[in-house]
Amino acid sequence: MIEIKNFSKMYNNEKKAVDNVSLKVGDGEIFAFIGHNGAGKTTTLKSIAGILDFEEGDIFINGKSIKKEPIACKMQMAYVPDNPDLYENMKAIDFINFICDMYEVSKEERKEQIEKYLNLFGLQNNINDEISSFSHGMKQKVALIAAISHNPKVLIMDEPFVGLDPKAVFDMKEIMREMCKEGKTIFFSTHILEVAEKLCSRVAIIKQGKIVKVGNMEEVKGDESLEKVFLELDEENLKKE
Amino acid sequence: MFKREMKINFKNFMIWTSILIGLFLVVFLVYPSIVNSENMQMMDEMMKIFPEEMLKAFNMDISSIDSAFGWLKTEGFVFVLLITGIYSGLLGSNILLKEESDKTIEYLNSVPVTRKKIVITKILCGILYITLMVVVIGIFNFIGLSLSGDFDRKSYILLSITPMLSSIVIFGVCIFLSTFTHKTKKTMGISLGIVFASYFLNIISEMGESTEFLKYISIFTLADIRNVIINVSINPWMVVLSVAITIAFMMLTIIRYDRKELV
């Protein structure tokens, strides 16, 4: 479970990138974060993942504070960034093993998991190649495999579907559903509203660092499409400004 | 993590070590023919033309270049000092900062590892590579000298270790400076500047009493080759000072990196 309490984040003591956000994402939930570029999605995700420090509020991962117990929180979590900036000079298998080492995954366990996901994403023939020779989509797949190979209880993803081919998008959605059934928590940001609409149990719309709408699909969109609701909210905010 | 760090930095270590080995290989291959020729006498005559200060700066006033070991004591160790210094400076300015430049720091920060552990691992890797470089060059030259003729082994071993004293300090200073920026380009220039400025200050400080004070601001004063040649011993205060300065910069790096906004 992820619990965000009155979370605010400022860069260089200037304007707040995220302003007093409070959210709860339960076990077995797939939660999407929707918003424009610069709305505060990535800042929130990076703060949940323990990458960014923040001034106000706190974030709890299964009851543990990311500020006070960062290692305990990170042990249960995996983070997939929007741009798969991996170690270019490493072989894909070495990178995945490196991440597994960090999470203390046993040799037997990782072998089974890695093989399963390599076959699923069709990377079994490229696993001994250097990451620098990979396309953006292939790097994204390696990042995803590394993230889910250690069986995290909480999965944080920033735009996970960008750069993936249709088959990989389908497989990724299946993996997310499977993880959800196992009671794991998935929190991701996306620009693809259709994916959010079909895949998520709940969504939040963020605008200029503030949550403007949050709830399950019915609560957020009613009888309309998520796209229409998102655009209407956008127009309302523009008028207020 | 340490294993991965060693792997990532292996290529650069090989390149810089090969440069020095290549240089010394040429010297060991060519030197016997120079020493045994008439040119040697001409070179000795030529040396007398140089001003005393100049000869002092390259230790040519206390050592002759009439043997391979003599050349090592004069010019050879200047190359070792400079190249290990440049390598240490670039390694120091790159080893932490590269994670930010390449944006891989996001990954590293999301896995269960503290920033302290990241810095300590990188520092250990850097110091190990600097030590390895000094040891590899030392062994290579030892073999080369053994094949070239007789030489003072104790003096040679002490001379081979000496560059370590300046290199670890340069590494410490540069890794600390790298915590103040986010781009490797900036610190790489500064690192090279520190190495060359320090080296020239050291040379100028040897040229006379009026410039002697400059040695107190040169890192290369810690690697006192001249003292090793004359006394066949390393000044223990220089060892203490080098270790103390390096540890101080390492501690400052850990503190600074812990507070740095990384993304």
How are the SSEs ordered, and which strands pair?
The complex is a heterodimer of chains A (about 240) and B (about 260).
Chain A lengths: L1 E9 L5 E10 L4 E5 L6 H8 L7 E6 L2 E2 L4 H6 L1 E4 L11 H11 L4 H15 L14 H13 L5 E5 L7 H16 L3 E6 L2 H7 L2 E6 L2 E7 H5 L4 H15 L1
Parallel strand pairs in A: 3-8, 3-9, 6-7, 7-8
Antiparallel strand pairs in A: 1-2, 1-4, 4-5, 9-10
Helix pairs in contact in A: 3-5, 4-5
Chain B lengths: L1 H34 L3 H11 L2 H6 L10 H28 L1 H5 L3 H6 L4 H34 L4 H9 L1 H15 L6 H22 L19 H7 L4 H24 L4
Helix pairs in contact in B: 1-4, 1-7, 4-7, 4-9, 4-10, 7-8, 7-9, 7-12, 9-12
Protein described:
The complex is a heterodimer of chains A (241) and B (263). Chain A is α/β, with parallel strands linked by helices. A 6-stranded mixed β-sheet of chain A has the order 6-7-8-3-9-10, with helices on both faces. In chain A, α3 runs parallel beside α5 and α4 packs antiparallel against α5. The longest helix of chain A has 16 residues. The longest helix of chain B is centred in the first third of the chain and has 34 residues. Helices cover 76% and strands 0% of the residues of chain B. Chain B has one domain. Chain B starts with a helix and ends with a helix. By secondary structure, chain B is mainly alpha-helical. Chain B has 12 helices and no strands. Chains A and B meet through α2, β6 and α3 of A and α1 and α6 of B.
